[in-house]
Amino acid sequence: MNRICKFLELEMFSSTKGLVFIALVLFLLNNIAWGKIYNRRFVLREVPYTRLCNTKNILTINGQFPGPTLYVHRGDTLDVDFYNDADHNVTLHWHGVEQPGNPWTDGPEYITQCPVQPGTSFKYTIVLSIEVGTLWWHAHSDWTRATVYGAIIVYPELGSTYPFPKPLDNVPILLGSWWKRDVMEVLQDTLKYGGAPNISDAHTINGQPGDLYPCSKKVLNIYFPVLKINSRHVRVGLLVEQGKTYLLRIVSAEMNVELFFSIAGHQLTLAGRDGAYVKPFTTDILMIAPGQTMDVLLKADQPHGNYYMAARAYASAVGVEFDNTTTTAIIQYHKPNHVPPLSSSSPLFPSLPDYNDTQLAINFTRRIKSLVSTDHPMHVPLTVDKRMLITISVNTLPCVNNSCEGPRGTRLSASLNNISFVKPSIDILSAYYSSINGVFDSNFPSKPPVKFNYTADTFPTDFLTAKLGTKVKVLDFNSSVEITFQGTNLLAGEHHPIHLHGYSFYVVGLGFGNFDKKKDPLTYNFVDPPKLNTVGVPKNGWATIRFKADNPGVWLMHCHLERHSSWGMDTVFIVKNGGSPLVKVRPRPSYMPRC
């Protein structure tokens, strides 16, 4: 806040344009961190972990899997000193943190920085502004995020409180994937042979598969206490007191699968999504996609006993193999200062939907609305300066002698507006601000190259082939942007979680089928649309978002299904600087990693 006061003092004497002055003040109030500055140290190293009767070395931060939870208040700043003590190039991304004016430490490899090489270090400055609730951090190089991830818990700023009764405790729930193989070998085989990647062998809750998997009863969890059945068996569980309320900080760090999540015998109250509060509503099923976060209130209002929390796949694509296993943890009721031994009988198990229950998934999503109040205002743009229609497709590329493992010997690919993104050899951010030519093209199309029935059952074979390119879209500072994402049924229609770095946006509409530019905008919600950073585009459907391009920098947008991103379902927005030094990208740090 002192930074804002200092700015106001200077502007009082230097600014002669009142409207410009007011606009800059509003930008600062909404975008500049005003809290404390904290320092953390992250060391990347390989350590052995045992799951599913198999031990392998995995990448970790500080030896922990999942990694450390970061606790901050709204408006704080984190300086994370990162040292790479492993054998892989890695970057870190702070998912959902808007990083106003600071794309240099947003993290995606070859977009805003070159990777941190083994034996080197890099300082990440994470600038929190308006975010509150649950966010997360993860590696952003190849598939290293499979084990390198953790939660960010953003408490309300000091002196304020939650818009709901204060819970007894905050409980991180991180949903993830586990392969018996080295996950980097899985990716390498996928890219080498051109087919679909091997599916994961398990889903996890806080790094543990749960006791429905082999060799998974003797477990220790960094978030849950150990619950003894007898001298030989131990289960993972969450201890709760009857009548108390707990705030579950749920993160989907899953790699390639969306999940249904439920707790036996309990209603869940969704109170936040992607670092913003929502109008609370109760449900017995959550649908959460990779990249998304949820703040969920759990009231321990059931009889004393043991109850499973469980998660398994929501798999919308027909004919696409997926991990159909179920991960679990146990909720155990206890009295204060007394933990009874866990009964040897099975805990109550929740009823989970069918794997392909798209209607339930979309009905849940449609219930999410912004909490609009004096303390939590809404700023959805009501007019549009830049309108885009972006198709989302799984495609193919030719392969020599039809020797790949994709359809008809082709190589699997993916695209946005039929452009399959190719990472450059140096980062786009440095190339843009240093005026280095030949790194990217600024002609990413605002609409598909060909208009067709996007959700048809059959297509001409030439529609399947994407074009390779490193294409970006340049946006004027402070322009109002509307993007309609249109899912296609090329190869296989699927639900896609699309994440935009550097921004939260309002989801003003979604539906099934082909977007109708005359009829569908009549259904837009401008009253309380959810404010998200990762939007789920329905299978063979569409979703429309709006945002104000008021954060200058270079920002990646991609599908958070890792196989799709690896195949090229990515693009980049370059948002120009504003007119004042206060709304320009910070100077390039001198210690940026070299390529």
TrEMBL record:
<dbReference type="GO" id="GO:0052716">
    <property type="term" value="F:hydroquinone:oxygen oxidoreductase activity"/>
</dbReference>
<feature type="domain" description="Plastocyanin-like">
    <location>
        <begin position="444"/>
        <end position="577"/>
    </location>
</feature>
<dbReference type="InterPro" id="IPR034289">
    <property type="entry name" value="CuRO_3_LCC"/>
</dbReference>
<dbReference type="GO" id="GO:0046274">
    <property type="term" value="P:lignin catabolic process"/>
</dbReference>
<dbReference type="InterPro" id="IPR001117">
    <property type="entry name" value="Cu-oxidase_2nd"/>
</dbReference>
<dbReference type="InterPro" id="IPR002355">
    <property type="entry name" value="Cu_oxidase_Cu_BS"/>
</dbReference>
<dbReference type="InterPro" id="IPR011706">
    <property type="entry name" value="Cu-oxidase_C"/>
</dbReference>
<keyword id="KW-0479">Metal-binding</keyword>
<keyword id="KW-0052">Apoplast</keyword>
<protein>
    <recommendedName>
        <fullName>Laccase</fullName>
        <ecNumber>1.10.3.2</ecNumber>
    </recommendedName>
</protein>
<dbReference type="InterPro" id="IPR045087">
    <property type="entry name" value="Cu-oxidase_fam"/>
</dbReference>
<feature type="domain" description="Plastocyanin-like">
    <location>
        <begin position="170"/>
        <end position="335"/>
    </location>
</feature>
<dbReference type="Pfam" id="PF07731">
    <property type="entry name" value="Cu-oxidase_2"/>
</dbReference>
<keyword id="KW-0964">Secreted</keyword>
<keyword id="KW-0677">Repeat</keyword>
<dbReference type="GO" id="GO:0048046">
    <property type="term" value="C:apoplast"/>
</dbReference>
<feature type="domain" description="Plastocyanin-like">
    <location>
        <begin position="47"/>
        <end position="157"/>
    </location>
</feature>
<dbReference type="InterPro" id="IPR034285">
    <property type="entry name" value="CuRO_2_LCC"/>
</dbReference>
<dbReference type="GO" id="GO:0005507">
    <property type="term" value="F:copper ion binding"/>
</dbReference>
<dbReference type="InterPro" id="IPR034288">
    <property type="entry name" value="CuRO_1_LCC"/>
</dbReference>
<keyword id="KW-0439">Lignin degradation</keyword>
<comment type="function">
    <text>Lignin degradation and detoxification of lignin-derived products.</text>
</comment>
<keyword id="KW-0186">Copper</keyword>
<comment type="similarity">
    <text>Belongs to the multicopper oxidase family.</text>
</comment>
<keyword id="KW-0560">Oxidoreductase</keyword>
<dbReference type="Pfam" id="PF07732">
    <property type="entry name" value="Cu-oxidase_3"/>
</dbReference>
<dbReference type="InterPro" id="IPR017761">
    <property type="entry name" value="Laccase"/>
</dbReference>
<dbReference type="InterPro" id="IPR011707">
    <property type="entry name" value="Cu-oxidase-like_N"/>
</dbReference>
<dbReference type="Pfam" id="PF00394">
    <property type="entry name" value="Cu-oxidase"/>
</dbReference>
<dbReference type="InterPro" id="IPR008972">
    <property type="entry name" value="Cupredoxin"/>
</dbReference>
